[in-house]
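A reminder from the course coordinator: this example appears on the midterm review sheet, so study it carefully.

Given structure:
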């Protein structure tokens, strides 16, 4: 009968864990945000999303935020760091680690052509200027463009301009950084033409002209400054459904999509005592949401917070079961044996 008191230890321990450590099981799930609004210091707004189901389905899985808060763009040619996103003048500026930089000087590293998936809503901006270095003049037409075009107008677009302003005024380092290496400017109209240029040139770089007036990108009186990077334009098509969803008077949701059929949904935080992370087909305060048909309907959102919360719950259950099992084993190990040999203070069955 003395060992029967151990039977009360198991439920007592389980109750203690739930009573004193509820944050381990419940708090992380309640604090999850539906869609992250930034990656590092770069704001993430519609049409983009770094959590599946957020933003527009046209840009699904194209932006990736690392655990260290670094944003990158996925393309067929690789992943590229995103330096900034402008929503007033819709574009991304990305860095290509394979492109030439002032630090390289005359040491040209192996490079690869940057490319975009033409099926996406991204496009290479015409505001990019491409400079090519040490091109073979047997394969590439390297000449001062104004003079060459005057004499050969039918071949003007095929020439690489050696009189380019940027070749003579390389941003951040000046033309002296190239030493005796040649430089010319050419705008490739397709990825294939870029590949051909790199086949006969040592390296290349992209320079974007950035206007200081980001608040008013259409004020062309603003002074433009050259900077290294590839400008990628994107379509910003805000629908009426999205505007209603984001209206703060109607609940201030975030525009997203169903991960199964990619139809539009309005993603909502906890509102007036309703369950966390619910979604509506119109806007968060739509009375139809409270109908039996829509109540409790969820959308699959895959994010780091959900994984952490799930892991916390699973971990807590494993801990509880482990402790309970250990206690149960200890209780059983002290039960008097009914057969076998008893030695010392341990009960062993042989």
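Designed residues:
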């Amino acid at each position: 009968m003395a060992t029967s008191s151990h039977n009360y230890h198991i439920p007592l321990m389980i109750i203690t864990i739930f009573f004193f450590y509820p944050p381990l099981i419940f708090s992380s799930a309640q604090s999850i945000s539906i869609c992250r609004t930034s990656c590092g210091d770069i704001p993430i707004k519609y049409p983009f999303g770094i959590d599946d189901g957020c933003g527009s389905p046209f840009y699904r899985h194209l932006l990736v935020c690392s655990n260290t808060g670094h944003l990158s763009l996925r393309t067929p040619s690789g992943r590229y760091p995103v330096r900034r996103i402008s929503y007033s003048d819709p574009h991304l500026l990305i860095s290509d680690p394979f492109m030439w930089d002032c630090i390289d000087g005359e040491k040209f590293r192996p490079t690869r052509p940057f490319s975009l998936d033409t099926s996406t809503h991204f496009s290479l901006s015409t505001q990019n200027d491409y400079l090519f270095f040490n091109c073979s003049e047997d394969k590439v037409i390297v000449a001062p463009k104004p003079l060459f075009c005057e004499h050969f107008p039918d071949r003007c677009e095929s020439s690489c301009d050696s009189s380019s302003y940027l070749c003579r005024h390389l941003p951040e380092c000046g033309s002296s950084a190239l030493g005796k290496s040649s430089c010319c400017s050419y705008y490739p109209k397709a990825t294939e033409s870029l590949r051909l240029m790199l086949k006969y040139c040592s390296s290349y770089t992209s320079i974007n002209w950035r206007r200081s007036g980001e608040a008013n990108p259409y004020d062309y009186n603003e002074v433009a400054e050259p900077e290294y990077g590839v400008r990628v334009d994107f379509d910003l098509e805000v629908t009426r459904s999205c505007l209603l969803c984001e209206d703060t008077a109607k609940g201030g949701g975030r525009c997203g999509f169903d991960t199964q059929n990619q139809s539009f949904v309005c993603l909502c935080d906890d509102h007036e005592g309703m369950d966390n992370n619910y979604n509506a087909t119109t806007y968060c305060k739509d009375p139809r949401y409270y109908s039996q048909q829509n109540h409790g309907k969820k959308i699959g959102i895959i994010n780091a917070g959900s994984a952490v919360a799930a892991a916390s719950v699973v971990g807590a259950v494993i801990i509880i079961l482990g402790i309970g099992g250990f206690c149960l084993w200890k209780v059983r190990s002290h039960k008097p044996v009914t057969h076998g040999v008893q030695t010392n203070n341990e009960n062993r069955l042989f």
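Residues 103-234 form one domain. The helical segments are 9-20, 22-30, 145-151, 165-168, 191-200, 240-246, 304-333.
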